[in-house]
Sequence to fold (335 residues):
Amino acid sequence: MLTIICDSPGKLSAIDRPKPARGDGEVLVKLRRIGVCGTDLHIFTGNQPYLSYPRVMGHELAATVEEAPAGSRLKAGDTVSIIPYISCGRCSACLKGKTNCCRNIGVLGVHRDGGMTEYLSLPEQFVLKAEGLSVDQAAMVEFLAIGAHAVARAGVEPGQKVLIVGAGPIGMAVAIFARLNGGEVTLIDGRADRLEFGKTHLGAAHAVQLGSGDVEELSEITNGDFFDVVFDATGNPKAIERGFSLVGHGGTYVLVSIVASDITFSDPEFHKRETTLLGSRNATPADFERVMEAMRAGEVPEALITHRMKLADVPERFAGLTDPAAGVVKALVEV
Fold:
């Protein structure tokens, strides 16, 4: 089967691998779509700290079932979305239902080879039936679930003023579910095209260009109170540190992005606000179901999909996705 492997930063190869056999308790799936994530771009550019090369990328996965175990809830031909966070089911986090932060987690496309291939065999609990969804939609469930999880962590409520710092795909996912929870969403980013997309397609109430005067604009939007909930989706240490000052008194700060850095903040300012600080990692099966429910209700715009390529064309075309001028929101690889 055709498989795309990242041999080293900047080098992708098309190779032939044997089709996997279905293991006990596993489902054999045929990949149909692979969403390209910021993580994949970081792997390609050599900026992913939790990875060793060579690696098959790809963790935003839609597939159809080829073979399922006897008595399975799945059958051949079903469209499915894959939970790529392979958890152990035994550690304290898993036993508390927090499989998204399993101590022994193995993420497809990061800790182990992922979905830029034609077939995978996976434990059944990580294969979710995507009833009523197209394969395009099923490929977007994972990154949207990260946003849904962050919003659930924060407990966004109707009428709250919500700031999302960083309007990339994950920030957009947060925006969608914060708005569906009734939050008044403000986006801040350095890219005017992303801000315009957020207002046009995601229902953001306000969009602020990063730069001189941005804090004053954010203050004006909130009548000087700043925000009930601030989400960081930048992956930038300085932006994360700056975000503490944008949280209103009694507010919550959620770090969705992860950086290989120490983060510092002013403790007097943190305590003055009685800030709640939360980390948000990956997503749970409940978050995946929340996303699929929203998709079935027509609440997720398919305008998120801006670019496509065939699996065989990935080695030649993938580098073009790293160019900001390309205007990529979500690229899908078609198998």
Q: What stands out?
A: Residues 135-154 form the longest helix (20 residues). The chain has ten helices and 17 strands.
